[in-house]
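Shipment paperwork, digital attachment
Item: protein structure file
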Amino acid sequence: MGTIRVVLIDTSEIFVKGLAKVLESEADIEVIAICPTIEEGFRKIIDLKADVTICGMNAFTDIDPNKAIEISQNLHRLLPNAQFIILTDSENEHDFLLSLQTGVRAYLSKYVTGQYLVSAIRRIHTGEVIITPTMARKLLKELNTLSN
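Attachment content:
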């Protein structure tokens, strides 16, 4: 499978540096960039050809949702195999659905263990989609509402 190249994006320096420390201990994961903004992060993802990107939800606070969707669609055209994880403390339905629209493949609590995060990185890198049980219930409710 090779090394999984990871970009970390969040406005909290201590948060992303802590994530980097957790991930650096894994032989098959390499943190290739740490970025404070979505815009900078997306440039790094493209320039460095990242496999997986982990974003803290607060990285999205200063960006228009429609712009985030547009940027991520362009990104997926350039790097169709790039995968995204959102780490959040929000169970807000709107945040979750917006994340799915922007191509997120894992929507996780930022309180997951390091071991769980490492497993999630490996799993989404192979094509899996991972969401919390609470968000899965909300997604099913939303789909049922749309089909009625």
